[in-house]
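Figure 2 data, in text form.
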Amino acid sequence: GRILEKDVVLALSRKLAASINAMPGYRAVLIRDGDYYVNLYRRPQIARDHRADLFLAIHADWFRYSRASGVTVYALSGERADRENAARVAQKENSADLLGGVGNDISLGSLEDDVALTLVSLQMEWSMDQSVVAGTRILESLGRVAKLRKDKVQQASFQVLNSPDIPSMLIETGYLSNA
């Protein structure tokens, strides 16, 4: 009789995908469409493989007290972005990191470290800015139909938000611990 997050967010995600797919020119891609786990590191790559313009991680929070309620939208924090960018440059010889788009458009391998770090940092800054812009619009829309826990996009260090090339948000849709 327990409500599970995976069931709630999959149902929400399917409804959101159907709404998006009903709009001309838009196509939603679900990271998962069944009861199975997808590694956190793999999720942004799936979005990238489908040339996504936006990545949304849908979640349902919980808290030990049932009074917690409301929607929260998160974007990547600058501190996490700096660490991720440095890591990308450090391993640039062994990976096909992306700049300026998806699909291995530009490889970092041929660039000097300082140039690569500057380019990745600029791309990440753009991605984070766009995440906040989109998150703000989502909060405005959700605020008309649901209680908001925070009325501004929050900054966090979630693994799924670290794409330099895809604006990304994590949306906590509410609390399973609150009926």
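Caption note: The longest helix spans residues 113-142.
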